[in-house]
Design goal:
The complex is a heterodimer.
Chain A: H1 3-26, E1 40-50, E2 53-65, E3 70-83, E4 86-99, E5 106-125, E6 128-148, E7 153-166, E8 169-183
Antiparallel strand pairs in A: 1-2, 1-8, 2-3, 3-4, 4-5, 5-6, 6-7, 7-8
Chain B: H1 2-23, E1 35-42, E2 47-49, E3 56-57, E4 64-68, E5 75-77, E6 83-89, E7 92-100, E8 103-112, E9 117-125, E10 128-137, E11 143-144, E12 163-173, E13 177-181, E14 190-193, E15 198-201, H2 210-215, E16 222-232, E17 237-248
Classes of the chains: A mainly beta, B mainly beta.
Chain lengths: 186, 249
């Protein structure tokens, strides 16, 4: 990642964090009572730009509330696609925390995750297959919003910026996902 | 309260998106015309076999860079997943130079016309560069591994007198001399003179002696050849091998 890109990214995230941090302070103490925090699961379409390759796939998330506005998140994603004639498969397993200040119908959230991204590359040249697998450390920062459809079902859209280390470089790969959330428990 | 929070949230998302958009890397070079190169660099742990065996590779510490020889601006760092992209390369014959932490690991000579898109996959192993596949889309919809019309060498990425790495199947011959089919780099088999080469049988082709290994070089065998491209015309090419690795007999 170039210094320019890194600096602009850092500046953007600092600014974003400061704006986000201001939100709860301005808010009154309690919103209208809503459903109590409960674990939920998400399944949906996911897209990521991994380096120069555009990959499509699915995303799964499970979250568990540990405080009124804070949850732990487990994020599993699988993407695939092709670039320059080579096939790419990418599996990401990350975990972290999510801050979600509202329990209304529209519920924005911000999260930070850390984990591993495993990328497998393969190419068939005639009868010969050349392949390569690589596990890279990375973390993801971002957020999104849940829109409640019913007591148990919601639609979620999320954006992550995944910072992944590999090939002596740090990549900043955007990831978008959209899908359905099912609220567990009572 | 909720509205205020949501407005702030929208601002957060906007700022985050803006930071990505403003800071995003664009491929080096001008985007108006010329040749575009999309490539993948596979690492040390890559395996080659007829079966789909997987190799695990620790993260490479070396920073890979690809540049166009003779250009001060046409250079790009390889992404964490091995991909890279260069655009605006002047058409004609140019050389891609692959560097690991600034040290050259190999060169690939490419000939491509204006508006062409070159797709190249290379493997860096033991400090050497192997061209796994190279395809040139001339912009007319044709996609070929062959050099463009007018090129004097039938092996794309090959230069007479320079080292070359080839992977393919033995079309005919034996361990002394054989014809090698290398899909993606040459339409016709490449003649390999292996009379003074060392032989190694690896993976599923492992043998207990060199003699047995040599005997496994027969039609259909998958081999990796390291050597020097001695001659190359538009229809024929000859390589003198220094090492032959038999991957599957």
């Amino acid at each position: 990642m170039s210094a320019r890109r890194f600096l602009s990214l850092a500046a953007g995230l600092v600014l974003a964090a400061s704006v986000a941090g201001a939100a709860p302070k301005a808010a009154p103490k309690k919103a209208a009572p809503a459903t109590p925090p409960a674990p939920d699961v998400f399944l949906g379409y996911s897209y990521t730009k991994a380096g120069d390759a555009s990959l499509n796939g699915i995303g799964f998330q499970g979250t568990f509330p540990v405080a009124d506005t804070f949850r732990v998140v487990l994020d599993l994603s699988g993407h695939d696609g092709t670039f320059a004639g080579a096939d790419f498969d990418q599996i990401g397993l990350m975990a972290g925390g999510r801050w979600s200040p509202l329990r209304s119908r529209v519920r924005p959230f911000a999260d930070g995750l850390v984990g591993l991204v495993r990328t497998s590359t393969s190419i068939e040249s005639g009868d010969v297959t050349v392949d390569d697998s690589d596990s890279d450390f990375g973390f993801a920062l971002g957020g999104g919003v849940d829109f409640g459809l019913s007591e148990r079902w919601s639609v979620r859209g999320l954006i992550h910026l995944r910072l992944i280390s590999g090939e002596g470089n740090w990549d900043a790969d955007p990831r978008f996902a959209v899908g359905f959330v099912y609220r567990l428990g009572r | 309260m909720e509205r205020s929070v949501l407005v702030r949230w929208a601002a957060v998302v906007g700022v985050a998106l803006l930071s990505v958009a403003c800071g995003s890397d664009s491929p080096t070079g001008s985007s108006g015309g010329g040749v575009a190169v999309q490539g993948v660099v596979m690492g040390e742990g890559a395996s080659a076999s007829a079966a789909d065996t997987r190799a695990t590779q620790a993260s490479q510490a070396k920073k890979m860079t690809v540049k166009v020889d003779g250009s001060a601006t046409l250079s790009v760092d390889v992404n964490a997943n091995g991909t890279f992209q260069l655009v605006g390369i002047p058409s004609g014959t140019f050389t891609l130079v692959f560097l690991a932490d600034g040290a050259e690991v190999g060169r690939v000579v490419v000939s491509a016309g204006d508006g062409s898109e070159v797709k190249i996959v290379v493997q860096v192993t033991a400090g050497q560069l192997i061209v796994v596949e190279i395809k040139i889309d001339d912009g007319q919809g044709s996609n070929t591994g062959q050099p463009p019309a007018g090129s004097t060498c039938s092996v794309n990425g090959g230069t007479v007198g320079q080292k070359i790495e080839l992977e393919g199947n033995v079309a005919s011959g034996d361990s002394t001399s054989f014809d090698l089919s290398v899909n993606g780099r040459s339409a016709s088999p490449i003649k390999v003179n292996a009379s003074s080469a060392s032989f190694r049988c690896v993976g599923g082709a492992k043998t207990s002696s060199v003699a047995e290994c040599k005997a496994s070089v027969k039609t259909g065998a998958k081999v990796h050849v390291s050597g020097t491209l001695m001659t190359c015309t538009a229809s024929t090419a000859e390589v003198t091998a220094t090492e032959v690795k038999v991957q599957k007999d």
